[in-house]
Amino acid sequence: FGGALQKSHSIISLSVSGNQMDDNTSRMLIHGLIHNNTLTYLDVSCNKISCNGLRVLLKGLLEKPNSILSVLNVADNHIQAEGGRSLGRILRTNTSLVDLNIRLNSLGDEGGKMVFEGLHKNSTLTRLNIASNRLASDAANALAIALTQDCCELCVLDLSSNQLCNDDIENLGIALQNNYTVISLDHRLNNNMDT
């Protein structure tokens, strides 16, 4: 798998969704893409990648100084709070990623908080799907701060199916009063929410 990818230096889009990929397969994937400087889209959703595999993917693809990866889909994997820490760290410094889908994982409130803290210094991410991750008040507070930062360029944000309460949604509404970039916010199916 990795050897075949090494021979192609011009792959711009790669989808390996639903392939039972685990952390070891993630390492092979990165080994195969280590010299690729053209990849802009990667979909590894619906696999078995944990925090360790995610860390390998992020380090191999987004920490490279010449990274142009703009879309990353890691939805429906086994990513927990430590993965949120890795994502937050990358978001602080990466300047290529514009679309991140991490829905249907298990970040929890702490992992979500780390992702949103990474957005405090990020000026490139415009789309974030973080639905179904058990986010609660700590994550919502970190997001509210991120939404008030001048550098925040988020346009589309999906927070659906988490554990946000009415107060969390109200605080996000207050943060959005002076934010002119968010055009779509989905907060359906949260705690104490009718819609």
Automatic annotation (TrEMBL):
Keywords of this entry: Repeat
Entry-linked Pfam families: LRR_6
Highest taxon, organism lineage: Eukaryota
First and last residue of the signal peptide: none
PANTHER family: LEUCINE-RICH REPEAT-CONTAINING PROTEIN (PTHR24111:SF0), LEUCINE-RICH REPEAT-CONTAINING PROTEIN 34 (PTHR24111)
Name of the protein described by the UniProt record: Uncharacterized protein
Organism: Proboscia inermis
